[in-house]
Q: What sequence folds into this?
């Protein structure tokens, strides 16, 4: 991903929902000004959710998602409806596309109930308004994807539905002062992307730049030399969780230490849950099923943290054997009851709504939920030290 592009997890996710042939795809194309979705008079043309990251004025960076018809039938139809429901987990705003001629259907009313249950802000866009004279409606907007009428008004209305985030929410800038030196430990191994930094590292650097702090990036192999050069100026060391074992032995106790993964857990709103969940590692028994989940999809290489390093450390730490299952990207089991523990990545590629959904699903299922960095710190006996930057969490350790 380009250093200048907005990560998908930081974009406002807008989902277009409705029954077949209501004109969802036509309206998506009209709103985006691009042929994002295939349009046809045949019902059920959109068979899978279609996503597009873009800049949409006056909203800014967004992720537009066109979904299959919610009234689809048959075996394949049920699968398409299931995928449309999955989109509800991550949308910040929903657009219900209804037919202006027919009015609200039972399917439309079912969708409205789902939006309300999930606390998703939504607007009803009555499409095909050119066939009804674009009559005003109290419960929504009448628009026409064909003529472009009221499309600008729809976009402006969507912009007002965007919930203003916490502008004071920072990844790590609130932990340091302007002029502080912060060392970022970035190991370069087979799993490291060639020619670039991973997203949490990019976001951390930008956060520190905005603060006026100094970002000093080094590999774990040069960490000792870097700390010696900086001396007492080092205010904080942030490391990739995979090299906790090496880094903890190099960084003096007088210097605060944490990881990108721990910072991301706080940024995405599930740090406290993840800290509590790590203790469940001690309760595991041989044969227990553990889900290790990543929010992104990538080619897994030798020594992959999710499929190789974490399972090996779990077995070594507990002396027990487990059934390890993995998930990646948008795939996440709806039934978590078979698992005794879920270890999730930092969630940098997922928006906060999706991460909260996964966390709540685990809590409702009574399954402990933690993340990579916290699990690794716990098993290496340094969790308390790596959380010292958050004194309010000391009572949980």
A:
């Amino acid at each position: 991903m380009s250093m200048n592009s907005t990560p998908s997890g930081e974009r406002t996710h807008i989902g277009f929902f409705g029954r077949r042939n209501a004109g969802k795809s036509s309206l998506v194309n009209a709103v985006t000004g691009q042929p994002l979705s295939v349009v046809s008079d045949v019902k059920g043309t959109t068979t899978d959710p279609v996503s597009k990251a873009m800049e949409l004025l006056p909203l800014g960076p967004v992720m537009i998602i066109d979904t299959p018809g919610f009234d689809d039938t048959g075996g394949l139809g049920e699968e398409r409806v299931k995928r449309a429901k999955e989109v509800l987990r991550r949308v910040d705003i929903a657009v219900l596309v209804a037919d202006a001629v027919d009015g609200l259907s039972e399917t439309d009313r079912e969708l409205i109930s789902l939006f309300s249950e999930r606390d998703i802000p939504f607007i009803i866009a009555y499409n095909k308004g050119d066939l009804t004279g674009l009559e005003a409606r109290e419960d929504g907007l009448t628009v026409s994807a064909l003529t472009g009428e009221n499309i600008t008004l729809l976009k402006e209305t969507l912009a007002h539905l965007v919930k203003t985030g916490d502008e004071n929410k920072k990844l790590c800038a609130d932990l340091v002062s302007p002029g502080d030196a912060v060392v970022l430990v970035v190991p370069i191994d087979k799993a490291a992307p060639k020619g670039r930094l991973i997203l949490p590292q990019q976001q951390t650097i930008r956060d520190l730049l905005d603060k006026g702090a100094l970002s000093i990036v080094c590999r774990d192999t040069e960490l000792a030399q870097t700390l010696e050069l900086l001396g007492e100026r080092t205010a904080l060391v942030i490391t990739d969780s995979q090299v906790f074992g090496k880094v903890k032995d190099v960084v003096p106790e007088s210097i605060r230490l944490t990881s990108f993964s721990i910072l991301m857990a706080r940024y995405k709103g599930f740090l406290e849950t993840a800290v509590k969940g790590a203790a469940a590692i001690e309760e595991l028994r041989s044969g227990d099923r553990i889900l290790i989940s990543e929010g992104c999809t990538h080619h897994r290489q030798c020594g992959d943290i999710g499929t190789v390093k974490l399972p090996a450390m779990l077995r070594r730490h507990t002396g027990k054997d487990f059934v390890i299952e993995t998930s990646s990207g948008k795939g996440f089991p709806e039934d978590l009851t078979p698992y005794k523990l879920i270890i999730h990545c930092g969630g940098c590629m997922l928006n906060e709504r999706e991460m909260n959904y996964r966390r709540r699903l685990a809590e409702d299922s009574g399954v402990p939920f933690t993340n990579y960095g916290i699990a690794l710190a716990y098993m290496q006996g340094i969790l308390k030290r790596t959380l010292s930057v958050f004194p309010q969490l000391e009572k949980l350790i």
Remarks:
- The first strand starts at residue 12 and ends at 17.
